[in-house]
Each structure stands twice: as C-alpha cells, then as structure tokens.
Amino acid sequence: MQTLLLVIGAFLGLIAALIAVKVLIERARRQTRDRLTQIAAGRHERKLAGARSFGQRSKGAGQVRGNGALALFDDELVFVQLIPKVEIRVPRKDITDVGKVAAFNGKSGGAELLVVEWRTGAGDDTDAAAWQLSDLRGWLEALELPRPDATDAGAPDEIDG
After folding, report:
1. What is residue 88's predicted lDDT score, i.e. its pLDDT?
2. How many angstroms separate the CA atoms of 90 and 121, rounded?
3. Helix ranges restricted to H, 49-135
4. Domain limits at 12?
5. In the chain, how many domains are there?
6. 61 — pLDDT class (breaks 50, 70, 90)
7. CA–CA distance, 22 with 40 (Å, rounded to integer)
8. Predicted confidence band of residue 146 (pLDDT cuts 50, 70, 90)
9. Considering only Cβ atoms within 10 Å of each terminal Cβ, which end of the chain, N or C, has fewer?
10. Is residue 51 part of a domain?
11. 71 lies in a domain?
12. Is residue 157 part of a domain?
C-alpha cells in the first residue's frame, strides 16, 4: 500500500511540475509577444516568424540557444528571445551582409541558418547573429531588398540632361 501511495505521489508531483513548466513557457511567450508589440510601436512587420537563435558573434560560443520571434520592419530587424530574455535590434541601414551558414559560433542545428552581419558603430566594427527558420529562402529575399538609407555608390542621384 505504501508503494502505491509513493507511486501516486510521484506521478502527481510529475504532473504538477509539467503544468508549472507549461505555465512558465506560456508566460514567457506572452511577454515576448507583448515586447514585440511595444517595439513595433504601430509599425507593421514585413515578415514575422518563430526562430531559434544561435547567438550573437560578439558574445561568443558560450551562449545558450533560444527560441523567440524574429521580425522584419521597414527600418529594423528585431529578435526577442523567450528564455533567457535576449533582445537583438539591428537598424536595416546598418546591415552589411546576409547569408546562410551550416554552423555559427561553433553550433549547428541540422539545417542551414540565416546569418545577418551589421555595423556596430564607427569604423569597420561589425557583429553578427544567426537563426534557424522554417522559411530561410523567404528571409534571405526579404532582407536583400533595398534597405532604407542604403546608398548605391555606383548610381547617380539625378541624371543631368
């Protein structure tokens, strides 16, 4: 009889732990959606998807991968991670390169990753981040569109006639 009570107690404890984890994950998702809504501030996203982050180059290989939301606005690329809370915001005009890689920061995920590199300040300083997405091709295409304030040094502003 004692063994049966122990088994039932362990089972109920496991169920309670699973419910607690589910509640915490749902709270993190809600907070991520709320944060993304705040960041959007009335802007409409051109593209929005769930994404798995493989980290930011400047923070090194010790970062934990994390799920979150990746959003592309006309003027900004934004990633908000669920757990741990991480936020990456990149003005589109600062994006210097977009591509795909098999691994990033020493981590791979069995699928190609979107990698975005951007200027971080004066000079040639850059940083990069990578994400695993279900629509990699669509993201590559969306990010390759002309970016606001991007200049084309080879094309004149006006043609004098």
Report:
1. 95
2. 12
3. none
4. 2-144
5. 1
6. confident
7. 27
8. low
9. C
10. yes
11. yes
12. no
Query: What torsion do the CA atoms of 39, 45, 51, 56 make, to the nearest 10 degrees?
Result: -50
**Can you tell me the distance from the alpha carbon of 51 to that of 75, in angstroms, rounded to the nearest whole number?**
20
Q: Are 63 and 105 in contact (CB under 8 A)?
A: yes
Cα(62)–Cα(75) distance, integer angstroms: 30
Residue 134 identity (one-letter amino acid): S
Find the CATH number of the domain harbouring 72: 2.30.29.30
At 72, the amino acid letter reads L
Torsion of CA 32, 35, 36, 41, to 10 degrees: 170
Q: Give the E-state strand segments of the chain in sequence order.
A: 47-56, 66-72, 76-81, 86-91, 95-104, 107-119, 126-132
Cα angle: 26, vertex 142, 74; to 5 degrees? 80
Strand (E) or helix (H) holding 20 = helix 2-40
Residue 39 tokens, joined: 């960041």
Residue 157 phi/psi, 5° resolution? Answer: -70, -35
- Is residue 129 a contact partner of residue 80, using CB atoms and an 8 Å limit? no
